[in-house]
């Protein structure tokens, strides 16, 4: 299908993060999903905050999780601008890393290496883009590929 919003376009996100550097959380802040994460995600486990195009963005989720005791949180985004901003801001915070990747492929993440994948608005953004049916199938397949055998995919959607 054709994109009805700019959220499916990589250029939208590069422009947005260049112009607006204020942090923003889609749908829920950490406090809103903390109890769900506590139930399903291990504090010592590998957590992946992976969202394509929208990506981890400049959300405080990773920072808040590490400050609450999660030891291994990796945030990925397909937008180099925001990955550089967040790496510079949180580079000294142990247990939190940022990288550039597309959640439809998660090429930088090994198979079966993640305890919990967090999607806060990713599926929604993919569904706003072109080839949404294929993109959403790729996103879910990539998440399932990187999850450990009893891993959890947490989707927060509108």
UniProtKB/TrEMBL annotation:
UniProt keyword annotation of Transferase present: yes
Pfam families (UniProt xref): Methyltransf_11
GO terms for MF: S-adenosylmethionine-dependent methyltransferase activity
Entry keyword annotation includes Methyltransferase: yes
Family matches, as CDD domains: AdoMet_MTases
Annotated transmembrane regions: none
Keywords: Methyltransferase, Transferase
One GO biological process term: methylation
Annotated family: Belongs to the methyltransferase superfamily.
Stated name of the protein: Methyltransferase type 11 domain-containing protein
